[in-house]
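A quick aside before the break. I want you to see a complete sequence-to-structure record at least once, exactly as it would be stored in a machine-readable document. Don't worry about memorizing anything.
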Amino acid sequence: MDAPHPQRAGDRVVNPLDAAGWQADALVQQIERQVAEECAALRTDAARQAAAIRQGARSQTRVHLRRAIADLRATQQQRTQQTAAELETAGRQQASVRARRTLAQAWPALTAAIVARWQDPAARSAWVAAQLGLAAARLPLEGWVVRHPAGWSPAEAAALQTALRQRGAVTPTLLPDESLHAGLVIEVGGARLDSRPAALLADRQRVEAALLALFEPATAGGASR
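That is the input. The structure line, written in tokens, reads:
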């Protein structure tokens, strides 16, 4: 086969083999450009997808983190409430133990303290006045039998008679009672108003409640200091 003859292009001779090489080079360059563009597009798309994945991961991480923080706070709050409840229960138990100890120590001394108040003239006068006022409000005013300590002097008995009249008692009878050392007993029509120490302390639950009401502020004040 004969080699292609060179052709003239103007004043320049063009070899067909050279023209084919140029076309091949141009095609290769175009392919390379396309490959580069496609690679760049792929890299851009991959970067965009990676950024989206990272953003999603960060968002998911934030959600998990917020959830974990909320769970921790809830757990801490529950523990705090549980601890507070345990401390309150322990405090009540300690207060109950202290109250029982205080009452156990105070109860034997109550009778002596009541008798000591009766032996004080001013306190005894207030005691009698209070009992007569209560009797006048609750009992029929006629036919009172009033028992008092046998050791009273005539002057004390006379003062009691005067106080009875002032309260509106009609024909009261005074009876000295050897068993009485403190307090009065007023009886009429089967009813009785008794202010002896044993009668005053008969409702132990009520008396202990009253004592605790007195002790608690003092205990709280001591604890606050």
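Two observations worth writing down. The domain at 100-224 is CATH 3.30.2320 (hypothetical protein PF0899 fold). The two ends are 123 Å apart (CA to CA). We'll return to this after the break.
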